[in-house]
Amino acid sequence: MDLIIILASGVATGTVLLYATVGEIFAERSGILNLGVEGMMLIGAMSAYKTAAATDSAWIGLLVAMLAAGLISQVHAFIAITLQADQVISGLALNFLATGVSLVLGEGLTSLRDIVPQLPKFTIPGLAQIPILGGVLFTNHSIMVYAGYLFIPLTWYLINRTRPGMHLRAVGEYPAAADTLGIRVYLLRYLYVFVGGLLAGLAGATVSLSISPGWFGSLTTAGQGWIAIGLVIFAQWNPVRAAFGAYTFGALRRLVLDLQAPAMILGLNNPFYYNINYGFFLKMIPYIFTIVFLVIGSREANRKRIGTPAALGLPYIRGQRGL
Fold first, then answer.
1. For the whole model, what pTM was predicted?
2. Helix, strand, coil abundance in the chain, percent, nearest 5
3. Residues 69, 204 contacting (CB under 8 angstroms)
4. Are strands 268-269 and 264-265 parallel, antiparallel or unpaired?
5. Residue 95: CA atoms inside 13 Å, Cβ hemisphere, count?
6. What is the CB neighbour count within 10 angstroms for residue 126?
7. Distances (CA, A) of 166 to 9, 30, 118, 152, 172
8. Average pLDDT by consecutive 10-residue portion of the chain (323 residues)?
C-alpha cells in the first residue's frame, strides 16, 4: 500500500464531502436542519453530467448543477420555514423527491461516459516537489480540489469574522433577539438553505465530472450526503474541522479498498484479501463512524456540549417568546 496514494485519494474524495458538509453547516447555523443533502447531491451530479453532455462544457454543467440543487432545496425551505413543519420529515421527503427526480431524468446517461467532458486536472509546479505533501496535495488533482483549499479559510472567515457571519450565527442561536435588531430571520434562513443546496449541487457535480466521472444512479454519490450530515456534528459546525473530517473519511474509504488488495501485510497473511464478508465489514466502518456521531449529536446534553446552534430544528414564530 502506498501511503501517499491513499492520502491523495483521501484529499480528492474528501473534497466532495467538504463542499457538502460546509453547505449543511451554513444551513444548520441558520437554524434549519436539512436531511436532504444526499438527494441534492444526486440532483447536482445528474444535472452536471446531463448538461455537460448536451453543451460539451463541464463548467456549464457545474453551474447548472448548483442552480438545480439550490432550487430544489427551496422546497424544504418553504415547508420548514414558511409552513413551520417538522424539519426532519421535510428533509427526508426532500431526499426522496430529489433522488427520484435524479434517477428518472438521469435515465440513459450511463452510456455517455466516454464523451462527457470533465473538469480539468493538473499538477501545481514547484509545490508538487515538496516531499510527501507535494504528492498528496498538489499532484494531478482536479481544480475542485485546489479550490477546496481556498474554500476552507474563506468560509471560516465568513462565519466567524464578518457581519453576515454574525447575522447567520444570531439567526441560528437567538432568532427572536436577531429579529428585534432588524435582522430578517426568515429571509436569511431561506438564503442559507439555498447556499446549502448550491454547495450540495457543487459536491455532486464534483463527483460526476471529476472525482469519479460518470452517472451510475444512486451509486454516483454512494451515501456521501448522509456522511456529510454526520460530519457536521463531528466538525462542531466549524469548516476547518469539517475539512479534517472530510479528508480523513476520504482516506479511510481508500484504505478500505487497499486493505483487500495485498495477500500479505507486514509478512502476515491478510485476512481481508478478497474476502467478501470482511470486505463488507471494512466498508461499514466509515458509516458506523457517521452513525456514532449522529447519535451523539441527538442527545440534548451532548448538543449543548458540542455547541449545537440553539435554535437548530426549531421553527421561528414571530412574536412567540423564547428562541
1. 0.91
2. 70, 0, 25
3. yes
4. antiparallel
5. 19
6. 9
7. 35, 11, 37, 18, 10
8. 81 96 97 96 97 96 98 97 95 96 92 87 95 94 97 97 96 94 96 98 97 91 91 92 92 72 55 56 67 65 70 84 56
